[in-house]
Amino acid sequence: MTNIVQTNSCSATLIEDQPYEEYAARHEFLRSSLLKQILVTPWHFQHSLQNPKKETVAMTKGTALHAALLEPESFQRRFAVVPKIDRRVKDGKLRWQAFVEANRGKTLIQTKDVKLIQILRRSISQNSRARALLTMPGTSEASLYWTDVTTGVKLKARMDRLITEPSRLLLEVKSTGNATKRQFQKKIIEYDYHFSLAMYREGLKSQFGEYPPVVFLVIEDETWQICLYSPDRKMLAEGHRRFRSALDTFAKCRGANQWPGYQPNSMIEEISLPRWASRATEQPSL
Question: In terms of pTM, does the model score above 0.85?
Fold first, then answer.
């Protein structure tokens, strides 16, 4: 049953247990993955808006891992493991059709993905701090909607887990090929994780009146090691700066109904080799 969390705030709404399909369908609200595209160029924003990405096999597996970790009680309801059926023969075709009918509406995953989920759960159980964060009172995959006071832009966020007791804390789960601090720093920059954090925290401030602290729970692919990182003030400040810059740019482009790309003036630019290439082609003096 959908639960709408009421607070004294009138500018934000937190909805627990909202199906992702309903969240995704609220197109009048901007999500961070779309908004951050405007920092490349407004043209990129429009392209992403008009050409939404289709879910890949890797994305489906990631969704299943997230659900198993953050919403284990709903996993059976949302996912079905594909059985080993030879669909080339008549009996196999009938069995496959019966399986599809019985699991209509569910996301299909492979047996190997279930094994990965079991390994992940075992790794979490061996990390006392991670286990504690995932079992503290809170809500997973909650939807947050709010209107930015300065620009009037409607925004939304789908947070991995919002811990509510003993104090409010935002937990973001990420997977990566290398979970060391140095390599994850690069991932933060590459995927603009700090931008998303700033946006989520802004929405939570609209809802609860204060910015919550944040913890990254990072899962390393293959080894399934768990690392926990807390962004420092400098990272949060830079994320906030990028978020506000994107929001202001969007508001201006929307107001003018203009979405420029790399060359807004349709000019012909002179182009040269970069310095390193010029040095490499210099002839040595004899």
Answer: no
